[in-house]
């Protein structure tokens, strides 16, 4: 199937198709408990094939997202065209916009002008679609898996490991946002889960909450995690701060818009 226009740029429909295909693979693996069947004959080969196809689709999706409505890309393209025009190659066609174009505008300033010009014709739905596309472009495949695991609203345990001060208080945080959600999601880089969770919180897709006593067993399991035990070796007196993580309101809305199982 051809996913390119004659000029080589991706369209929003192209991105949606690629997102649906990549998401269907990731969603199928997460929702059917693919990791629970690894002991079946030939399952290792099947799993490697699945992940290879998934990586290929996600790489192509990321490339397309980089091309769709990217103000910095548009600014660089416009600047390049303007430079060619100044050199006498040919005139560049321009459009009257909210922020008028200037000669030799720096790319960052031109990109901001591009965003302001976009805002003229954006309604609520188009603005929401743009926001979700920008968020989607920033996610790694592992982070997408974590968000899928959190999408039903279930809380997962999370802990910070801190140095205990001389007075028994909390000192320097040496490990932040370690969680069992990575293992549940089947991420490829389990040691990066604290960073993944921190990034998802930063994007507003995931929120921290208070400790949930009913998750005691999972907290105990988390304390045996390799990343936690490694940090404990570096600190003489540790203090464990227990929390939970769950999908945020924005995260739930984002997932509803991107959930491949609904496509």
UniProtKB/TrEMBL annotation:
The lineage of its organism: Bacteria, Bacillati, Actinomycetota, Actinomycetes, Pseudonocardiales. InterPro entries: Abi_alpha. This is Abi-alpha family protein.
């Amino acid at each position: 199937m051809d996913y390119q226009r004659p000029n080589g740029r991706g369209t929003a429909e192209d991105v949606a198709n690629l997102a649906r295909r990549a998401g269907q693979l990731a969603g199928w693996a997460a929702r059917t408990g693919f990791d629970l069947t690894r002991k079946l004959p030939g399952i290792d080969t099947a799993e490697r094939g699945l992940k290879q196809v998934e990586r290929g689709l996600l790489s192509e999706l990321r490339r397309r997202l980089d091309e769709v409505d990217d103000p910095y890309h548009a600014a660089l393209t416009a600047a390049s065209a303007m430079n060619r025009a100044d050199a006498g190659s040919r005139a560049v066609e321009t459009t009257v916009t909210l922020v008028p174009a200037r000669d030799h505008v720096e790319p960052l300033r031109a990109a901001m002008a591009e965003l302001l010009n976009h805002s003229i014709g954006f309604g609520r739905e188009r603005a929401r679609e743009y926001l979700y596309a920008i968020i989607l472009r920033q996610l790694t495949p592992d982070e997408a898996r974590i968000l899928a695991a959190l999408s039903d609203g279930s809380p997962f345990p999370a802990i910070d490991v801190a140095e205990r001060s001389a007075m028994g208080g909390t000192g320097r945080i040496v490990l932040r946002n370690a969680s069992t959600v990575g293992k549940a999601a089947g991420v490829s880089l389990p040691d990066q889960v604290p960073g993944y969770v921190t990034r998802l919180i930063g994007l507003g897709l995931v929120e921290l909450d208070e400790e949930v006593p009913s998750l005691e067993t999972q907290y105990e399991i988390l304390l045996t995690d390799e990343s936690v035990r490694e940090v404990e070796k570096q600190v003489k007196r540790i203090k464990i701060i227990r929390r939970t993580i769950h999908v945020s309101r924005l995260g739930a809305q984002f997932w509803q818009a991107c959930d491949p199982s609904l496509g």
